[in-house]
Please model this.
Amino acid sequence: MKKTFVAAASAAAIFAMGGSALAGDLYAKGGYKDAPVLVAEPTWTGFYVGLGVGGEAVNHDLSATEYDSGDKYTIGELNGISGTGVIGTVEVGYDRQFGNIVAGVFFNYDFGDNVSSSLRFNDLTVEAKQTDSWTAGGRLGYLINPGTLAYVLGGYTESTFELGLPGFGSVDGTFGGWTVGGGLEARLSGNWYLKGEYRFTEFGENSAILLGDKEDGIGATIDTSVQTARLVLSYKADLFGASVAPLK
Model:
């Protein structure tokens, strides 16, 4: 009986010592203290709003037309005249990330320094002055690294141009056209992003009567293209929540 009690006591002691050693070993080698911690994984998905500044170059193929008793005559023509100016821009949009691919939609409004060009014939001058512009479109990009996106874009643009004869009057015309471009965008810190972007816009040919009517008057025809380069600072927020991944 005594031998049985001693054997049982010895076995209990060995088990207790072994359990303590095992617990110590688990803690030393990383048990629960080293379990993966779930943190939000940075994502390019989200709605954003941005403000920017840039430069613009407008190029016109401009011609002046005289209407005489219903007949039409071209009385002046000048191709390749251009003007430059500074613009500001306000932009809103939404991006969604799919692995290394980012796709999104955007809308922006450009404003600022008027860009004008003119054509002079005889004693008259025809002016074409841009007053504002907006673009709606989409973009598709590839993440060069987690913090840098290279992308291309395309969309539809409308711009208001004022065609006029100084001293006689003017008319406003809304020009519509297509826009293509591309750029690089970088994540700065937190939800802040900065992008540099180039765009080219081609408008269709537009005509307007500047003085009189099509029986007896003066008109202008204008074919316009616009190039812009801009820097835009944006704040982006993922309103639907970010994905999570273990931090190792």
Q: What stands out?
A: DSSP finds one helix and twelve strands in the chain. The two ends are 55 Å apart (CA to CA).
